[in-house]
Each structure stands twice: as C-alpha cells, then as structure tokens.
Design a protein that fits this description.
By secondary structure, this protein is of the alpha/beta class. The protein contains 7 helices and 11 strands. It has a single domain, classed as Rossmann fold (3-Layer(aba) Sandwich), CATH 3.40.50. The strands form 2 sheets. A 9-stranded mixed β-sheet has the order 2-1-3-4-11-10-9-6-7. Strands 5-8 form a two-stranded antiparallel sheet.
C-alpha cells in the first residue's frame, strides 16, 4: 500500500493538529495509509523515508539538524513527493537554506495581518491541479515570499493591499500555489492555510491541496516504473 508521512508540530498558531487531521483525511481519500508523527525524529530513518510516496510537513519555525535535512533531501530526490501549506512548509526551519532550496520558497512577511485578498488562478496553462477552478477570495494572511524562480506557478495574489514600506515598489504578483521538481521527486506548495478554517470557507483551497498531493504522490510510481535513479543528480561538491 502507498504510504504517507505527516510530521506536525512547531508554532501552535498555525494549528498543526487540525491541519494534520485534514491532511490525513485527504491522503486517505487518495488511497494512502498515513503515519502521523509529532516529532522531527520521524526524519531519522532514510530507508523508511524512501519507502514513502509523500512527506507532508506541518511544522512552523523550529530547527532541523543537518542529518535530518539530508535524509529528507535524498528521499525526495529518489522520487518521494512532498506537499504542504502556508507556514507549515515554507516558514519552517528559518536558518536551514537547504530546506528552502527543497521547498521552493520562504515566507518573509504578511503585511496587514488577516485581510481579504484574491487568489488568481493562471488561465494561460493547462494543469490538473488548477483546471476548472476560478479565481476566489480568502480572508487570511497574504504571504509575501521569496520564491525559487524555477517553480511552476499555478496561482498568484496581487500586492499591495495593506499599507507598508513595500508599496513603494508598486504592484507585484506573488506566487500562492506552485509545483517544482527535486531530483525525481515532485514538490507541491500553497501559501493558503494560516488556520484550518480557511479550507472550510474556501473549498477551492482544499481542492487545490488534494490535487497537488495527488500529483506529488504519482511521482514515486513514475520513477519506480521507469527505473529512474538519482545517479544523474549526484555531486561530490555539494555540502549540506
């Protein structure tokens, strides 16, 4: 059976327990058996991590040591998917640049705090994660992020709405939903989900997460069925 791992913890303000329950239900609906851990020691066993189809971090802030990060990096590179939301994935382990490299971006601000803003779905691309979904509004933190230019952006939000020093730069479209590759692994992220009720009030948000997880999970099977190894990615010059 396909297996998933949810690792929850860190800052309580992002409701890791509630988000983990939602993730578990979504993953089970996709046909996966789900392990849930409330300790970062879940990342200690590389063989176990490589046996998974997806890793779903739900951990804001905190510290991730080098060996654990290396295990995650190598597991995802082998074909294991990764998927997460908001600060539980891209405001984790702020001092760990390799984690940021893996996930595709990191939070830097949310001017205005809790505000209403629009999520604009890209209409110029054909992608199963967003097909058939129209633009929608949420009331939550609007994440301003530093983003890997290699990600495939599926939805954006426009800044500024709230007053702050950034408005001197004029309007910018900030990624809200993206996909990227990491070796053979598929990485999915959305900045939606400051609290769990965001997914109740905007069902489009949960649909995007479910589709994103499905896409990430399928990468493991693709790599296995086509016997794609990580050999072409390996480098002796990269230090963690």
């Amino acid at each position: 059976m396909k297996r998933a791992l949810i690792v929850k913890g860190g800052w309580d303000g992002h409701e890791p327990d509630k988000i983990a329950v939602r993730f578990k239900r979504i993953l089970e609906e996709l046909g996966l058996f789900v392990d849930v851990s409330d300790t970062l020691s879940a990342y200690d066993d590389l063989s176990y991590l490589k046996s998974l189809h997806i890793i779903c971090p739900v951990w804001t802030d905190g510290e991730l040591n080098g060996d654990r990060c290396k295990n995650i990096v190598n597991a995802v590179a082998s074909g294991v998917g990764m998927g997460g939301v908001h600060g539980g994935m891209c405001d984790s382990f702020r001092t760990n640049t390799e984690w940021q490299f893996l996930t595709g971006g990191n939070w830097v601000s949310h001017p205005g705090g809790i505000i209403e803003y629009a999520v604009n779905i890209r209409k110029d691309i054909d992608d199963d994660v967003i097909n058939g979904i129209d633009d929608f509004k949420v009331t939550s933190e609007q994440y301003y992020m530093h983003v890997d230019p290699a990600v495939k952006v599926l939805a954006t939000t426009r800044f500024p709405i709230a007053q702050y020093f950034h408005i001197s730069n004029g309007e910018v479209d900030m990624p809200v939903v993206w996909k990227k590759m990491w070796g053979n692994g598929r990485v999915f992220y959305t900045s939606l989900g400051h609290t769990d009720d965001v997914f109740e009030k905007s069902p489009e948000s949960e649909l995007i997460v479910k589709r994103g997880f499905k896409w990430a999970v399928e990468g493991k099977d693709y790599a296995t069925e086509n016997n794609i190894t990580v050999d072409r990615f390996l480098s002796d010059s990269k230090n963690y």
